[in-house]
Amino acid sequence: MSLSQFDPATYTSQLAEKKQRLIELLAPFDAPEPEVFDSPREHYRLRAEFRLWREAEQRHYAMFAPGDKHTPILLDDFPIASTRINQLMPQLKAAWQASQVLSFKLFQVEFLTTLAGDALLTLCYHRPLDAAWQAEAEQLAAELGVNLVGRSRGKRIVIGRDFAEEELQVAGRTFRYRQPEGAFTQPNGAVCQKMLGWAYEALGQRDDDLLELYCGNGNFTLPLATRVRKVLATEISKSSVNAALANLEGNGVDNVTLVRLSAEELTQALNEVRPFRRLAGIDLKSYAFGSVFVDPPRAGMDPDTCELTRRFERILYISCNPETLAANISQLSDTHRVERCALFDQFPYTHHMEAGVLLTRK
User: Fold this and answer.
1) How far is CA 302 from CA 6, 99, 101, in A?
2) Which domain holds residue 145?
3) Which residues contact 28 (CB under 8 A, 6 or more apart)?
4) Are residues 198 and 320 in the same domain?
């Protein structure tokens, strides 16, 4: 997002334009009018990453316009970022300005915060990190009340935890999440909470089983698991799988089996194209799947995975790219209809939007 686009006074009209665009994309499928879930107008983004730019013998937070890596936009604060990030930015800058050990060849800073108030900082260097750096970093982490990760080529030093802890409320229950450094998490926590609530309601209380593809750190898995008999969930990223397993255990969710497979690999397994050792001991035929939940990357579902979802009575689909969502619905429209749809404004002041649909068999 360009800072020039940030204008809370225009938020309502921008959101209306996104709604109209989603209506037009889903019009060929006779979709109902989308439910719209707005965002806070500022301080909504829980993650931020800044390059550092050296000027007048000091390093400054910097961003760049798309396609231009040579003209920095120097920042003292970042109004779309969480209040916690804006509190930490000047404190961290003062710390590196006062310390040659902390500032020497520091080139990038990453912030990860949560609605629960936790914070994790990652400092990236073009030099080896030594004992002197670690001693000062430990003092800094204690002073700021954060967890901290130092990164340099081939080395990673963790001070405290290498994850942030989040708490999200869904249907009156608090779910606690471990969000690892470097792994994907939803950037807009307030809207993420609304997405979870909508998916929970759209799925409804079922007496059968759920297949979940692309489960990540278990963001949707935790609340949706309370709505079904049992869940088979898949994810390919090792760090996300480990976080999901920790989140399941930490929340006492015991009806989920998680396997490290891609959606394409699970499709092959369910079609009995080939066996997978990672499915050893799991009886796929013991599941009575009634619903499938998908939250794919921007490219959407590949054609084979899309065909796999056709088998299910209900397809609950969260998308970060409405264009590929529409393409997938087109492939499924001869057997399924759009019963519900929603717009989630994860990314205010940009053209990006998150969408959700519930498809049910005709």
Assistant:
1) 35, 50, 48
2) 47-164
3) 326, 330, 333
4) yes
Same domain, yes or no: 339 and 222: yes
Specify if 180 maps to a domain. Answer: no
Report the 10 Å Cβ neighbour count for 45. 23
Q: What is the pLDDT of residue 1?
A: 52
Residues 93 and 144 in one domain: yes
pLDDT computed for residue 56 by the predictor:
79
- Chain segment 98-134, per-residue pLDDT in tens: 999 999 999 999 999 999 999 999 999 999 999 999 9
**The residue to which tokens 């990223």 are assigned:** 237
Helix (H, G, I), strand (E, B) or coil at 128: coil
* Torsion on CA atoms 159, 163, 168, 174, rounded to nearest 10: -80
Pair 36, 60 in one domain: no
Q: Report H helices in the chain.
A: 11-26, 83-97, 100-103, 131-144, 189-203, 221-225, 238-250, 263-270, 303-309, 322-332
How many domains does the chain contain in total? Answer: 2
Write down the pLDDT at residue 286. 92
- Tell me which residues of the chain have a pLDDT lower than 70: 1-4
How far is Cα 181 from Cα 163, in angstroms, rounded to an integer? 5
pLDDT on residue 248: 97
57 CB neighbour count, 10 Å cutoff: 6
Consult the annotation and say whether 219 binds a ligand: yes
The CATH number assigned to the domain holding 273 equals: 3.40.50.150
**Which CATH number is 139's domain given?**
2.40.50.1070
DSSP-based three-state secondary structure for 305: helix
295 assigned ligand-binding residue: yes
State yes or no: is 124 an active-site residue.
no
Ligand-binding site membership of 235 (annotated):
yes
Q: Which residues pair with 81 in a beta bridge?
A: 45
Q: Which of 124, 215, 320, 341 is catalytic?
A: 320
What residue type is assigned to position 150 of the chain? Answer: G
- Asked about 320 being catalytic, the answer comes back as yes
Q: How far apart are CA 55 and CA 73, in angstroms?
A: 12
